[in-house]
Design a protein that fits this description.
Elements (H helix, E strand, L loop, with lengths): L3 E3 L6 E4 L2 E4 L7 E5 L2 E5 L1 H4 L4 H8 L7 E4 L6 H13 L3 E3 L4 H11 L10 H13 L3 H10 L4 H6 L2 H13 L31 H4 L4 H14 L4 H15 L12 H17 L9 H14 L3 H13 L6 H4 L14 H17 L7 H26 L7 H10 L9 H13 L5 H8 L9 H8 L6 H25 L13 H5 L8 H24 L3 H54 L4 H26 L1
Parallel strand pairs: 3-5, 4-6
Antiparallel strand pairs: 1-7, 2-3, 4-5
């Protein structure tokens, strides 16, 4: 910080209640009123240097004591006193903190070079150009003091010159930065890091008012010399300096406080670069939480949700964990915010068409992003499931919001359901059913299926589904293995003995089928016993479900086997009837002693004997 010392005389101003005067042998003949303070001064040191006082005294006449009111002087009584001390030759110290009010007051009093050489205004201009604008922190400090005198500072060009000086230094390459700056990031020390960081300027400009900060960011962005990530970092640092931390303690609730922070949030959101990745998604999510608490405009909320949805795949579980400050919501975690961001992500994923080399690449990119978000949401659900006040409806809504392609497997959602059932032991059957319906048992890994079978918290229906799909998968794997292994026995001809070729087949039932019928009854009986014995335990639940499926399968196999045996028996009966009829016809024809009645009976017998074989002979002719 640079200073300038003007004047050599000691300070002789003193105050008596609401009166300020200077110690002098000559009596006071000049009274200046500023607000509630009266200054008892002398016309000789003041009038030669102040053009405004010369004009006002010319209209006051020849009275012995002149009284003038200067209530509208910029900077008030403090700025006027500096100008008065300069006229008296009293020592004053100028710096970036008091330059702006002194310069505005000197301009107001017309203490210019045209009134008297070596006046106050040219000295202040020289100090401003040679010291303040050349320094980094001096320019920022002087710019911040212009907040109290916006019109005067704007008309005198102080704001524009300060902003130009700051922007010029921001664009300076880090290797050429030789001035002091503030950089208090965790883990950074200047002794260990000899190089200047690229974002060295972000903390110092965060001391500015939001309107001045907007002017600097706008000027920096207009040059297109800095990457958007640096702009985003500056916005992040500014938000950390000014906005309340809603993750720790509830912030203040005064109307002035709320209105000020609403203005800051609106300004920051409007300055975020359009480039994806310019700001971290965790920062965007924090802004949404603060925006909801402050009650910002719907336009700002919508923009924050859109930007957060675009970068949701970059988030971590810690980025999604925010406490809920709403008195209407008993839960601790702000799950509604995550659901709103997820819905925005899904809407944008349907609309966006990234520039890809082919449709296949585009689909792979969308699928990869969707899978990342799916894992993120399942991990978040495992965290919020531990909240004892979390209603099952919100958990189900968030879990069902993801499309099916977002989950490659259901291991993550199963773990979340298991944690929720563990923390909510008094959950009703209807809520359990509603919670478990989002689980797809076919997408569980073998380890998770083994755990689900032994899980006492799951409904019986889920356990049955897990066992069913487990057996279906084992059967499919066995069938594939059998198909891959060639069966050489089917190529070998079966040996036929003469006795087997001459003797007619006997109608017999294989012993294996008889044993199957007996075992079928035994399985049903055993299932009932197992159900009565183990229905209260986990193993009984699993065995009972397994036996139910085995009974259903055995019933179906026996029904098919019985149908096959019935068809075979009917075929054998028809074959025996045809052979008997042919033998009878041959005997009648050989005797030759039958009459007309016998011939008629033979014809009937031939017709009767030929009916069963008609269909078979017709099939042969075909």
């Amino acid at each position: 910080m640079k200073f300038m010392k003007i004047g050599t005389k000691p300070d002789t101003f003193y105050a008596e209640e609401a009166t300020r005067t200077v110690i002098s042998d000559a009596p006071s003949d000049f009274v200046i009123q500023i607000n509630n303070i009266n200054y008892l001064l002398h016309t000789f040191p003041l009038l030669p240097k102040c053009g405004l006082l010369q004009r006002l005294c010319s209209h006051s006449g020849d009275s012995e004591k002149v009284s003038i009111e200067l209530h509208d002087i910029p900077g008030g009584e403090d700025a006027f006193e500096m100008c008065a001390k300069f006229c008296y030759g009293i020592t004053i110290n100028l710096s970036a903190y008091n330059f702006v009010p002194a310069f505005c007051a000197a301009k107001f009093l017309r203490m210019t070079e045209s009134v008297e050489k070596g006046n106050f205004v040219p000295k202040l201009e020289a100090f401003f150009n040679s010291c303040i604008l050349e320094g980094w922190k001096d320019s920022i400090t002087a710019l911040q003091t212009t907040v109290k005198f916006p019109e005067w500072s704007e008309n005198l060009g102080i704001i524009r010159k300060c902003i130009d000086s700051i922007v010029e230094k921001i664009h300076t390459p880090p290797a050429k930065v030789s001035w002091s700056y503030t950089y208090t990031r965790p883990g950074y020390t200047k002794k260990q890091h000899h190089s200047v960081p690229k974002d060295w300027w972000t903390e110092d400009i965060s001391d500015l008012d939001v309107d001045l900060f907007r002017c600097i960011i706008t000027a920096v962005r207009s040059t297109y010399m800095l990457p958007p990530q640096l702009i985003g970092e500056a916005l992040h640092v500014y938000a950390c300096c000014w906005l309340p931390d809603t993750t720790r303690t509830p912030p203040q609730t005064g109307e002035e406080f709320m209105e000020k922070n609403r203005r800051i949030v609106d300004s920051i959101v409007s300055m975020i670069p359009e480039d994806k990745g310019a700001v971290y998604v965790g920062f965007l999510l924090r802004l949404i939480v603060i925006a909801n608490y402050l009650g910002v405009s719907p336009v700002t909320k919508t923009e924050l949700l859109r930007r957060s949805g675009l970068q949701l795949e970059e988030a971590t579980v810690d980025d999604l964990i925010f406490p809920s400050h709403s008195p209407a919501d008993p839960e601790f975690y702000y799950i509604d915010l995550v659901l709103a961001v997820l819905e925005s992500f899904l809407v944008l994923s349907r609309r966006q068409c990234p520039a890809a080399a082919s449709e296949l690449n585009r689909s792979a990119q969308v699928l990869g992003t969707m899978r990342k978000v799916g894992k993120l949401i399942d991990s978040y659900l495992r965290v919020v499931a531990k909240d004892v006040n979390m209603p099952v409806s919100k958990v189900v809504s968030l879990a069902e919001a993801l499309p099916d392609i977002a989950r490659e497997d259901h291991d993550g959602i199963y773990k979340a359901i298991n944690i929720y059932l563990k923390e909510h032991g008094d959950l009703s059957k209807a809520d359990k059913k509603r919670l478990c319906r989002i689980l797809d048992c076919q997408k569980l890994s073998p380890e998770v299926r083994a755990h689900a079978v032994k899980n006492e918290r799951l409904p019986l229906r889920i356990v049955v589904q897990v066992l069913f799909f487990e057996q279906e998968r084992d059967r499919d794997s066995n069938s594939k293995t059998a198909a891959a292994t060639p069966d050489r026995r089917k190529h070998k001809p079966l040996p036929v003995t003469p006795s087997q070729s001459q003797e007619p087949r006997k109608q017999t039932v294989p012993a294996s089928r008889e044993s199957n019928s007996h075992s079928h009854d035994e399985v049903k009986f055993g299932a009932a016993n197992v159900h009565n014995k183990f229905s209260s335990s986990t193993t009984g639940k699993r065995d009972y479900a397994l036996l139910l499926m085995q009974n259903k399968r055995s019933d179906g196999m026996l029904a098919v086997e019985n149908e096959r045996k019935g068809v075979r028996s009917e075929t054998q009966q028809v074959d025996h009837q045809g052979h008997d009829t042919k033998r009878e016809i041959l005997r009648e024809g050989a005797s030759g002693s039958a009459g007309a009645g016998s011939k008629l009976d033979a014809k009937k017998m031939i017709q009767r004997g030929s009916r069963p074989d008609h269909g078979r002979d017709k099939g042969k002719d075909r």
